[in-house]
Amino acid sequence: MLNRSWAPRFGILPIVEAVTLAGILLAPFALWSRPELITLATNVLILALLGISFDLCWGYSGIMSFGQALFFGVAGYVVALVGRDLDFSPISGALPLAALSGLLLALAFAGFLLLGRKKPTNIFIALGTLTGSYAAERLVSGWQYVGAGNGLSAVKLLQIGPIQMVEGVPFYFLALVTLLVCYCGSRLLVRSQFGLVLAGIRQNEERLTFLGYRVQIYKTIIFSLAGMIAGIAGMLFTYHQGYIGPGNMGPGLSTTAVLYCLFGGAGTLIGPVLGTATIEVVSYILADIDRIKQIWPIILGIVLLAVVVFKPTGILGFFVSDRERIGSYGIRAGKQRRTKP
Amino acid sequence: MTEPLLLEVHSLSRTFGPLRALDGVNLSVRSGTFHGLIGPNGSGKSTLLNVIAGRHVPDTGSVMFDKRDITASTPYERARAGLSVKFQITTVIGLLSVYDNILLALQARQNPWSLMRSLTRHALHVEVTAMLEHFRLLHRADDLAGELSHGEQQWLEIAMALASNPKLLLLDEPTGGMSPEERRVTGELLKPIKAHCTLVIVEHDLDFIRAICDQLTVLDQGRVLDSGTVEDIQRSAKVQEVYTTRV
Questions:
Q1: How many beta-carbon pairs below 8 A join chains A and B?
Q2: What is the model's pTM?
Q3: Where are the alpha helices (H) located in A242-294, listed in sequence order?
Q4: How far apart are CA B197 and CA A206, in angstroms?
Q5: Measured distance CA(B7)–CA(B30) in Å, rounded
């Protein structure tokens, strides 16, 4: 039988994950006296979900989606409208509603973009998702029922049992639990045998087709699940901000999600979390410095461009090898021994 | 021969711009045979294999596999029907381990829901190990497929193509770039599959072809020059002319 070392299983990524988790758990205690920073940290956790959503598409499956904000925004509008028109906002209903909105919308897009007879190119998918995101932004901008250009504000507060969730530490932990659940679920998925198929698709899609995989079905599934996570993020964002507007579903936020992922490190899951935290925190700090705030978007653009061009594996690429990032999918030596009679 | 026909190619033509790569090719392959495709460079051997595999769509003609017309079928549908292929240029998944490449090939028949729950990871371990052992890759199981030698990559890809237990295996130059010893081993690895698999093989090494094939088809300039048993082809004046004047 095999004598397998599986060295990559105990590499840098678990350490990065543990340190990040510790930082996220301790953050509210360190920021207790600064409510505006708790709000920022909560935003980071929510937007990290959007980054993970893009990572599942691009980092793991090679789907270049420039439309993740569409699923984010539509779910946000759905929960805001249900709150306004039906006076309904318990989490037991809002969470499935948002998840389902993101999932079904992404499924509909996948049906159009991925499930044709011919293999779609990445340009086709990128333009298709970008167009969808842009069209949705323009649509709601002129639609009075959904607040037109002003969006929907004073959104009904999210309810968990008798508690109404306002921004602050409780909402932070709600976002944290949601992020952890989505992260762990995504991690299980990408480390499963299904994840092995995604790793194959990412590297050589044609080979998998000739092995008998219906590649577009796998892409549709992961794209839909990513849409679901974006939808959940959109729900949290709407309740946290008390607002959802056209800009929250357009190409601007979609592109920001791409940058969160590419900056942190695609194909790692933890990379988008770090990318989101870095970009949002640095933006927050520099936006308050008068001499810099005017040119900050330009600086951010140049730095991100440099990372994408010169280090496509993102900041984690400095520490994590391709071998560790992609990982191994067979059973572990320890488990193997346990299964022997 | 009494074995039924497994593959029938009728009047197959394929052009690339002004180049007529295949020009009315007919080919019949019976179950349980090893069928070699030989011919000079540019004679259309690889194109024919690619059309049968579904990589290229023919301009005219048809491909019948196991009594089904698969001319318009996608590669995925052909693979599911029992047709497997190893292309001329190796296409192993370079950044996955050798073990994972085999696992990927073995689990191809399972549905995504089952794969999400990793239900067969343990059950397939025995099969992965057996395949690695048969193809002399067990000691490289944890290495990245991209780090294997050229010969080992060819063996890995043949193992991947065989993992789905296909009815028909298409091999395009499986010994290309191999040392004489590696070629001999490749022949040894292929012979046992005859019990359950039919083989169509494109190969330049005529000694290798003679050693493992029952039937040969000779292509020249996109057309079938001759077809028959190895002995028939060795005696064919048309084939001798081509090989003595152009090869």
A1: 120
A2: 0.91
A3: 251-264, 270-286, 290-293
A4: 23
A5: 7
Is the pLDDT confidence value at A288 over 50? yes
Half-sphere exposure of A264 (CA within 13 A, CB side): 30
Three-state SS for A31?
coil
Interface of A with B (CB under 8 A): 1-2, 4-6, 117, 189, 192-194, 196-197, 199-200, 203-204, 206-215, 217-218, 221, 322-323, 326, 328-331, 335-336, 339
CATH architecture of B5-90+169-245: 3-Layer(aba) Sandwich (3.40)
- Ranges of beta strands (E only) in chain A are 152-153, 158-160, 163-165, 243-244
Q: Which residues of A41-64 are buried (b: 16+ CB within 10 A; e: fewer)?
A: bbbbbbbbbbbbbbbbbbbbbbbb
Is B116–A213 a contact, with Cβ atoms under 8 angstroms apart? no
Based on DSSP, count helices (H) and strands (E) in chain B, helices before strands: 10, 10
- B18 touching chain A per CB within 8 A: no
CA distance B117 to chain A (A): 7
Specify the higher pLDDT residue, B124 or A290: B124
Dist CA B9 CA B23 (whole Å): 12
Gap between the Cα atoms of B62 and B71, Å rounded? 5
CATH of domain A7-339: 1.10.3470
What is the C-alpha separation between A16 and A264, in angstroms, rounded?
Answer: 12
Digit-coded pLDDT (tens) for A292-341: 878 877 887 888 788 878 888 899 998 998 889 898 888 754 344 333 33
State whether B103 and A336 contact (CB < 8 Å).
no
Distance, in Å, from the CA atom of B80 to the CA atom of B168, rounded to the nearest integer, reads 11
Under an 8 A CB cutoff, do A211 and B105 touch?
A: yes
Task: Write the Ramachandran bin of B42: left for phi over 0, alpha for psi from -120 to 50, otherwise beta.
Answer: left
B165 at A interface, C-beta within 8 A = no
Residue identified by tokens 């193809």 is B135
Residues A301-337: b if buried by 16+ CB within 10 A, e if exposed: eeebeebeeeeebbbbbeebeebbbbbbbbbebeebe
Contacts of B122 in chain A (CB under 8 A): 331, 335, 339
CA atoms within a 13 Å half-sphere pointing along the CA-CB vector of B136:
13
Find the CB nearest A209 among B76, B92, B109: B76
**ipTM given for this complex:** 0.92
Q: Could you give the CA distance from residue A281 to residue B150 in angstroms, rounded to a whole number?
A: 49
Q: Where are the domains of chain B?
A: 5-90+169-245, 93-147
